[in-house]
Amino acid sequence: MQRTQSPLLVRLARANPTSVFLATLVLVLAALFAPGPVGGVLLLALAAGLSWLLVTTWPVQAPQTRMIRLLMLTLLVAVALAKLL
């Protein structure tokens, strides 16, 4: 590990992709089935984590990938705000 690397990013790089996908799926389903404000807060927490990851990986992503990720993040925030209201 280099000094410039974050320990959290190193741990994320070693994580099993299937486990990460399933954990995220469980979080999204729990947020969608939770009552209004609780589900909205869970979705906003997920959006905050994804936006941090998006900002961190922005320089190494292709323009098409950036656009898709921004679109998905916008959709997630829209669903979270709709759930809150």
Q: Which ranges are low-confidence, i.e. pLDDT below 50, for 5 or more consecutive residues? A: none
For the secondary structure, the number of strands is 0
Q: Rounded to an integer, what's the Rg over CA atoms?
A: 14 Å
Tally the helices: 4
Structural notes for this entry:
The chain is mainly alpha-helical. Helix content is 81%, strand content 0%. It is built from four helices and no strands. Helix 2 (17-33) runs antiparallel to helix 3 and helix 3 (36-57) packs antiparallel against helix 4 (63-84). It is globular, with a radius of gyration of 14 Å.
What is the strand and helix layout of this fold?
Blueprint: H1 7-14, H2 17-33, H3 36-57, H4 63-84
Helix pairs in contact: 2-3, 3-4
Tell me briefly what this model is.
The protein has helices spanning 7-14, 17-33, 36-57, 63-84. It is an all-alpha fold.
Task: Supply the key terms.
single chain; 85 residues; mainly alpha
